[in-house]
């Protein structure tokens, strides 16, 4: 007896149904439990291994960080489906011992995924800490791959017409049975595709694409940035949504007593509120990946002291639930202004800014301010975090900078009336002492008015009333001096590898 569908066709159909089932299970686990599927983990596995040039090269190919993230997740999911097709077709075509082959191939597929992704398995977007997170991720992969294998076996069985015993002719002929089986598998496949699509749509709504890369700018910059307007940078396709009961914060490594605290423990400790400006290492001269907020939290030093740090400690290695890591020197971790923050501008940290807890590390780039943090490991030798492995740094201290925010190059300015120029100046953790403005391409300088002085840890806002008088093209330039007397670096340096320097220049036409 022969099935109406040839073996490769049966394999393809089985691979489609089983692959969609696997994708659906993974999508549901992502949505409900925050378990990242292999395609997502693969991105995190590869990203740190790229050089900055390769990383930016991929931005160019895929249209920025968002485009790269989308291509990565779609490519990884398609790749998984492709491997599934290969397995199912191989099993369908090999007539001897197909089940044994199926078990072997599925187990190999699973083992390869676990081996490649091993360092990333403790990532969990629902807030589980590294130990349970790893167990849940592995369990989800084992269940998903096993069900994939089972689904291939079932579909192939349904599609393969077996010879009917001559003494008991069934009402349905084997050929017809295969056709019905094919139709059945098709219906199941369409159902699974719809389920995957529906869950996929829910995941897209959760995604970071709408806000990753949010910047501040324009004439309306306020001393304190509203939470909704605060600049945002994330490595994630979907940011963590942490259930506090699953989460805790721990200090381990070179300490006398590794210690964990739950959110209730931490909130019961004395809190302080500190104004601090955060600034991304990718913030180009004059760009808006920089914002200021009032952060409420506990000095990290108090928590480290409770765990009994070893004198041999050189750095802290920080880990967040999304698998993001970074390091900075122990001296900075013990600085009383380095906070484990729970509050932002008087409310709980918003989800996208790190709920329930993030670091605030004044004077160092935003990279170091881990959102959704769960672990601080004291280490006795230099280690590297997510972006450090790409080659960023080694100096992560924010240089003194200033920006003209109210105008962009190409603007037209009236000759006979006053134009109010406004902007920001930021001295890292050194405070801003002075801002000067030039309206003639850095030939002559005048002091701008400091309209908001800020603190040593925050930006200042400045303003200058400009009455041009003469028509034509001119260049506006701003420069700042910090409270330690450090003047803004005029050498132009790009954001790679340790942040941009140079003066912000805006070309305008006076009409
Ligand atoms: N867990 C985690 N923390 C993170 C990141 C991340 O991707 N994951 N991005 C970092 C980067 S590059 C920056 S600039 C800041 C941005 O913080 P914000 O989005 O609250 O402004 O968060 C940092 N902390
Ligand atoms: Mo950043």
TrEMBL record:
Keywords: Membrane, Transmembrane, Transmembrane helix
Oxidoreductase molybdopterin-binding domain sequence ranges: 240-387
Keyword Transit peptide recorded: no
Record-linked InterPro entries: Ig_E-set, MoCF_OxRdtse_dimer, OxRdtase_Mopterin-bd_dom, OxRdtase_Mopterin-bd_sf
Domain of life the protein comes from: Bacteria
GO biological process: sulfur compound metabolic process
Annotated transmembrane regions: 71-94, 101-121, 133-159, 179-204
Pfam families to which the protein is assigned, alphabetical: Mo-co_dimer, Oxidored_molyb
GO MF term list: heme binding; molybdenum ion binding; molybdopterin cofactor binding; sulfite oxidase activity
Gene3D superfamilies (alphabetical): 2.60.40.650, Oxidoreductase, molybdopterin-binding domain
Protein name in UniProt: Oxidoreductase
């Amino acid at each position: 007896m022969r099935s109406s569908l040839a073996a490769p066709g049966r394999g393809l159909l089985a691979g489609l149904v089983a692959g969609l089932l696997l994708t659906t299970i993974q999508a549901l686990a992502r949505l409900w439990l925050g378990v990242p599927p292999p395609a997502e983990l693969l991105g995190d596995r590869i990203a740190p291994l790229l050089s900055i040039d390769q990383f930016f090269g991929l931005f160019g190919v895929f249209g920025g960080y968002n485009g790269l993230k989308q291509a990565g997740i779609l490519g990884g999911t398609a790749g998984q489906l492709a491997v599934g097709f290969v397995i199912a077709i191989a099993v369908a075509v090999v007539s001897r011992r197909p089940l044994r082959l199926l078990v072997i191939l599925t187990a190999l597929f699973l083992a390869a995924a676990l081996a490649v992704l091993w360092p990333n398995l403790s990532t969990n977007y629902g807030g589980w800490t590294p130990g349970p997170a790893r167990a849940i991720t592995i369990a989800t992969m084992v269940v998903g791959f096993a069900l994939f294998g089972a689904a291939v076996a079932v579909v192939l069985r349904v599609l393969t017409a077996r010879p009917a015993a001559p003494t008991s002719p069934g009402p349905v002929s084997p050929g017809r049975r295969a056709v019905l089986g094919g139709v059945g598998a098709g219906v199941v496949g369409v159902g699974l595709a719809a389920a995957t699509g529906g869950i996929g749509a829910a995941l897209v709504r959760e995604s970071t694409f709408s806000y990753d890369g949010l910047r501040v700018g324009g004439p309306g910059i306020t001393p304190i940035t509203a939470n909704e307007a605060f600049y945002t940078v994330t490595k994630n396709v979907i940011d963590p949504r942490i259930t506090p009961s699953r989460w805790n914060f721990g200090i381990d490594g070179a300490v006398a007593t590794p210690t964990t605290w739950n959110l209730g423990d931490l909130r019961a400790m004395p809190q302080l509120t500190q104004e601090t400006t955060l600034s991304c290492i990718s913030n180009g001269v004059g760009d808006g990946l920089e914002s200021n907020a009032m952060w409420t939290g506990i000095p990290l030093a108090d928590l480290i002291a409770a765990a009994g740090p070893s004198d041999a400690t050189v750095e802290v290695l920080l880990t967040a639930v999304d698998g993001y890591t970074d390091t900075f020197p122990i001296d900075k971790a013990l600085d009383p202004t380095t906070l484990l923050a729970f509050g932002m501008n008087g409310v709980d940290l918003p989800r996208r800014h790190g709920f329930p807890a993030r670091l605030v590390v004044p004077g160092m780039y935003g990279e170091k301010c881990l959102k959704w943090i769960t672990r601080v490991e004291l280490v006795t030798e230099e280690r590297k975090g997510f972006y450090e492995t790409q080659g960023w740094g080694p100096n992560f201290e924010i240089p003194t900078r200033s920006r003209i925010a109210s105008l962009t190059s190409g603007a037209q300015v009236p000759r006979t009336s006053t134009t109010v120029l406004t902007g920001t100046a930021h001295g890292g953790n050194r405070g801003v002492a002075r801002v000067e403005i030039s309206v003639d391409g850095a030939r002559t300088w005048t002091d701008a008015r400091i309209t908001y002085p800020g603190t040593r840890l925050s930006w200042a806002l400045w303003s200058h009333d400009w009455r041009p008088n003469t028509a034509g093209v001119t260049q506006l330039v701003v420069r700042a001096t910090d409270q330690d007397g450090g003047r803004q670096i005029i050498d132009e340096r790009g954001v790679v590898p340790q942040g941009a320097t140079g003066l912000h220049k805006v070309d305008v036409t006076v009409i």
